Amino acid sequence: MTTQKTLHIRAYFRALAREGVTDLPNPLHKRTGTMDYFAHLETPRAADTGNASEPAIPAFENAAELSAFCNAGNATFTIVSEKTGKRFTYRVAFPTDRATGKLDRSSGIMFASALTGPDNTKNYSYFGNIRRDRFEVGRKSKLAADAPSVVAFAWFWQALTQQRLPPSLKVYHMGRCGRCNRPLTVPESIKAGIGPECATRSDGF
Ligand SMILES: [Zn+2]
Fold it and tell me: 185: CA distance to ligand 1 center in Å?
């Protein structure tokens, strides 16, 4: 954390309040400390694929599709505030079974990670868990509970589950299926972020 980029957390929450983000989950809004407020500005613009003026992937328009995608078990996505241009990229996925190397879809828990480095396929830092729709910062989180990416995720996930995301908040997948992470090639699948095979799984997994 470099000093020139640290900012008192109260200033951060004032900045969030100016964006209309006032309903941060307790006890996050009462915490004090410093944080690397601008760290996320250095992350790559993951949602921009190729031509920056013409993103190939549209933002989710349908709340139910967005929720299904984010809960599909292996989803990587970028959230963007159209008001401020701030963005964060997250991965929300089931844990990997060490024995098989496959995702353990029966575990009842998903791990949340944030993109914290230049490689948007690898550089994710774990910070929390999702159980029964509820997000909590993990005890073994690699990010501070008051890091902007963690605070933004807590707010995002609560708004997602309550289906009250503001229109100014855009969410993009990264061209890969939210369930199996394979590249999406069928145009109809790109809107929902779920590939045709995964979309027809009758067990939901
Ligand atoms: Zn898939």
Answer: 11
